[in-house]
């Protein structure tokens, strides 16, 4: 981890991947469990797919 931004992205991706596995890929339930809008989750997932 080189900086704070990378640390946050690493943590966030781990949480999102874990929730996606727990909810069998149901993004609506993942977004609700994280208390974020579905659109925000979709945007974050797109970023994860690019990495």
TrEMBL record:
It holds the Pfam family HTH_8. Residues 10-47 form the DNA binding HTH domain. It comes from the Bacteria. Gene3D superfamilies: Homeodomain-like. InterPro entries: Homeodomain-like_sf, HTH_Fis. GO terms for molecular function: sequence-specific DNA binding. This is DNA binding HTH domain-containing protein.
